[in-house]
Amino acid sequence: MPQNPHDHPPAPDADQSVPLGRIERVISGLLRGGLLLSLVLVTLGVTLMYTRHPEYVSSPQALAHLKVEGQNPPGTAGKIVAGVLAGQGRAVVMLGVFVLFMTPVLRVAMSAITFLWEKDWIFAVITSLVLAALLISLVISYEL
Amino acid sequence: MTPLEFMLVTFAASVLAGLVGSILGLGGGIIVVPTLTLLLGVNIRFAIGASIVSVIATSTGAAAAYVREHLANMRLAMVLELATTAGALFGAHLAGIIPAQWLQRIFGILMAYVAVMMLVRTNRPSRMPAPPDPIADRLRLHGGYYDAWQKARVEYRVCRTWLGMLVSGLAGAVSGLLGVGGGVLKVPVMTLGMRVPVKAATATSNFMIGVTAAASAGVYFLRGEVDPFIAAPVVLGITIGATTGSRLLGRLHSTWVRLMFVVILLIVSVQMLTKG
Fold first, then answer.
1. Residue B75 CB: number of other CB atoms within 10 A?
2. Cystine design at B25: which of A57, B113, B202, B244 (Cβ 3.0–4.6 Å)?
3. Structure confidence by residue, pLDDT tens digits, A34-48
4. Can you give the pLDDT at residue B124?
5. Quick check: A100 and B57 CB within 8 A?
């Protein structure tokens, strides 16, 4: 039980008793890296959106497509790449979202590799199966 | 409403969603979706696309911190992830067999029951000794973390791994049909069934939900249901909320975390029952 709940809590990294293992370092580093890259791209994209379209501050026109049920432009890889090369803010935002979406998949792949490296065979198999299931569902979704 | 105002409102809702989601091990869709549909009049398809973005952002933002603090039990997460992703693969075929309406009723009642059980156990933890679990021993699933509120290390032994896998598999199978993320089912089974402390359970759930959502993210992306006007403020807002929430969780009293979770469970339960 706590002695006094009004005491200042210690820093969150006060747990010095258990050092971080390789797998923890790899995974938290990967998650941070993926999130940071995504944030940079999204921020850059938003900046581009507003500098290229000053009317976003005054006119509601650009949001009209969000209110209706209709055909939306699919977010294909080719379109996003073309948009990014053309300096379109919205495409840069979508690239950032794509990086974010890929981060958990990469996390599973990196865990499988790290478990293999550490000769933790059971967990190497478990994470490989998770990766396989993920890739299968991505392929299925692509064909839908 | 101009895009600027729209994005600011979405951003504010996302900060809140990230905060609540990271503490409770949920995706934050429960806040993002109603804000977009009811308040901003956005079509539901874009709102669900936004909810997928919010789940992955919450998970990624919070999990990095939880892994470093040992609050997320990674080995347990990976075992349950296997059950969830396998369940999700079968769940795609389930849609034609069981009517969604029945599933919603069943899960509405189930969640109300789970909410009551979590409430009952809040002040009266089970006196029964945890049954031995050879699977958890073999896979080394037991864990421990430093609790910043108790200012002490908390060690726990995981039991009933089979039950956790069963429920996670079920969560994976029905999440697509019910539009409910796995956290709502996984946190209760970890705390009530597997005897994982509630904070470790929500942190572990946070670690997992990103993977479950990533499995279906491709569909929404390709259908064009992820829109930059919504996704940008969601990513930025959720990151701020989830980073703050992940720093708070360790310092919160477990009872508060439980009670907040019970409230969310009851809301979801009522939603399910009215829909079904």
1. 21
2. B202
3. 999 999 999 999 999
4. 62
5. yes
